[in-house]
């Protein structure tokens, strides 16, 4: 995922938490706030594991989101991983992300 599409500032994260819709699952919580550009942020708490584990979870989240970007509506997305995400493989994370984004009505309408 390109750096131009990443949310990095704390204020931007707080905006999405405050104004966005939320959907929770076993592996993560997804937030979606409408906006002009497609941007995403990823948050992995220290409870998930050590730095190596947290970075692995973050890489899997970013890659899953990157592949879905053409199918998503414009807006701001934040994904907060839960402890169970450390033991999940890429496929489980991908399925959970699709399920949460569908519940948030963030997918583009298909013709």
Can you offer a commentary on this structure?
By secondary structure, this protein is α+β, with helices and mostly antiparallel strands. The chain has a single domain (3-103), classed as 2-Layer Sandwich (Ribosomal Protein S5, domain 2). It has 3 helices and 4 strands, in the order αβββαβα. The model has no long low-confidence stretch (mean pLDDT 94).
Number of helices: 3
At CATH level 3, the topology is Ribosomal Protein S5, domain 2
The CATH class is identified as Alpha Beta
* Count of domains: 1
Quaternary organization = single chain
Give the DSSP E fraction (strand runs of 2 or more residues). Answer: 15-25%
- Please report the total strand number as a whole number: 4
Category from helices, strands and their pairing = alpha+beta
What's the overall geometry? globular
**Average predicted confidence as pLDDT:** 94
Helix content: 25-40%
Order of helices and strands: HEEEHEH
**Largest sheet, described in full?**
4 strands, mixed
> Which ranges are low-confidence, i.e. pLDDT below 50, for 5 or more consecutive residues?
none
How far is the first residue's CA from the last residue's CA?
26 Å
Radius of gyration: 13 Å
Summarize the structure in short.
The chain has a single domain, classed as Ribosomal Protein S5, domain 2, CATH 3.30.230.10. Helices cover 38% and strands 23% of the residues. The protein has 3 helices and 4 strands.
């Amino acid at each position: 995922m390109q750096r131009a599409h990443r949310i990095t500032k704390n204020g931007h994260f707080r905006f999405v938490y405050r104004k966005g819709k939320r959907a929770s699952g076993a592996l993560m919580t997804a937030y979606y706030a409408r906006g002009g550009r497609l941007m995403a942020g990823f948050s992995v708490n220290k409870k998930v594991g050590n730095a190596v584990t947290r970075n692995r979870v973050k890489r899997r989240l970013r890659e899953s989101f990157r592949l879905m970007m053409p199918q998503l509506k414009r807006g701001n997305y934040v994904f907060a991983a839960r402890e169970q995400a450390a033991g999940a493989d890429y496929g489980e994370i991908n399925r959970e992300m699709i399920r949460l984004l569908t519940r948030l009505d963030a997918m583009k309408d298909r013709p």
